[in-house]
Amino acid sequence: MKKSVRYAALLSSLFVGTYGASAQLYAADAAIAANASVGTDGKSVKKTDKKTPPTSGTSTVAATQNKAVQAQSAPAAAEKPAHKPLPEQWYTGSLYSPSPALPTPGMIAVEPYVAAGLPAGAFDSNGHLNTRKGAGGQHSISQFSLAKYGITDHLSIYLLPTYSYSWGNHTKHSGLKFNDLPVEFQYRLTPHYTPSITLYFGVNTPTGDYKNLSNASEGVGQGVWALRYGVHSQFALPFFKHAMRVRLWAQVRHPVASTKLRNITSYGTEKGFVGRGHAGPYGNDGGSVELGITKKWVFALDLYHTWSTSNSVNGYNRYTKQYIHSRTGWSGAFNVGPGIEYNWTSSVGGIVGVILPVAGHNTSRSISPQAAVFAVF
User: Fold this and answer.
1) Which residues contact 364 (CB under 8 A, 6 or more apart)?
2) Do 95 and 116 form a contact (C-beta atoms < 8 A)?
3) Which of 178, 210, 232, 240 could serve as a FRET partner for 224 with CA atoms 20 to 30 Å apart?
């Protein structure tokens, strides 16, 4: 976990600096923006995300809910030169970045995704890319549907049910599989949606197949409960005649126990194996930027790093008569995710783009075209 701690420390320092600068900008704009009915951080002002900002993707930028600033007296406001408020901007959200807790109790956000996985080699322990045929594993297609509900104006619950299907590489197809299910609570520390700081805490539930498989491609789970925790920040700034939204985050998944393994498993064991497997912590960290082209059209870009610590396996294969004690090494990849958003209204939008791993070590490389539709109610 040493590497993950370094990333979390770096990003937390960035959160503090960027949040402070952005908060000053919004404090100066609040009095004007409150009277201008300009959007908040989601899609538009007509609805707090439905009136404040939409979520996991959406967000309209400008007068959010900084009541303390809005309550500022007229003489005090007049002492400072007026700043031009941020223009109204509609967002769907970038391909990969998480989002803050929803701003309104009872608000619902949904975002169904479809993503393909196109094998394109593998990175070895030295970071060299092997592009020989079959090095990247199987082709795959996944469908996952983000769902979020606002419990209070600061606390939301988040679910991400995922189905996947894989095939190719001289291996039998996996069939349609339901993966491990993430369940997470998100708490926004700030009274406003942008700028904001949100904390995440939840679990991955072991609902995916991971042992007694017909072939390794059927493994879509870890067989253990895992804690999920992280921190997220977002803020918005002027970008020519439009607005730019920036997000920074760090997230960790931490399995809390080992699991029984039998035969072919997602831990890489073969038929005849009996023993236990322990998955190490893994996670991701990075940033995204969304640049308004028009009020409806947005260019989005994710720049992030995924990492995984060692997994270990201990047991015995009754067919080969061998005791097995194996441990994988650290793995990681740096990824770029460009995308184009189009927002039909302040609360409905879509995005298409592709995730491209550009560097890494001890991991397969898969190019992932994606498309999603976002809606908030």
Assistant:
1) 119, 121, 122, 123, 135, 136, 137
2) no
3) 232
- pLDDT tens-digit readout, 166-222: 998 777 788 899 999 999 999 999 998 889 999 999 999 999 999 999 888 789 999
What does the block give as tokens for 188?
A: 């926004």
Range 147-176 burial, b when 16+ CB lie within 10 A, else e: ebbbbebbebbbebebebbbeeeebeebee
CA angle 152, 160, 196 (to 5 degrees): 45
Can you tell me the distance from the alpha carbon of 339 to that of 92, in angstroms, rounded to the nearest whole number? 11
Token representation of residue 180: 């491990």
Instruction: Extract the tokens encoding 338.
Output: 């460009």
d(C-alpha 1, C-alpha 304), whole Å: 18
Measured between alpha carbons, how far is 83 from 271 in angstroms, rounded to an integer? Answer: 68
Please say whether the beta carbons of 251 and 302 come within 8 A. Answer: no
CA distances from residue 133 to 115, 119, 121, 365, 376 in whole angstroms, order as listed: 22, 9, 7, 12, 43
- Measured CA to CA, the distance from residue 281 to residue 47 in angstroms comes to 39
Alpha-carbon gap, residue 195 to 207, rounded angstroms: 36
Number of domains in the chain: 1
Q: What is the pTM of this model?
A: 0.78
294 Rama class: left (phi>0) / alpha (psi -120 to 50) / beta: beta
- Using an 8 Å Cβ cutoff, are 326 and 312 in contact? yes
Quote the DSSP letter at residue 216.
G
Confirm if 69 and 328 have CB atoms less than 8 A apart. no
Give dist(CA 349, CA 93) in Å, integer. 9
Range of the domain at 138: 2-376
Q: Which helix (H) or strand (E) holds 6?
A: helix 2-36
Residues 352, 341: contact at Cβ < 8 Å? no
CATH code at position 317: 2.40.160.40
CA dihedral 29→35→36→42, nearest 10 degrees, is: 70
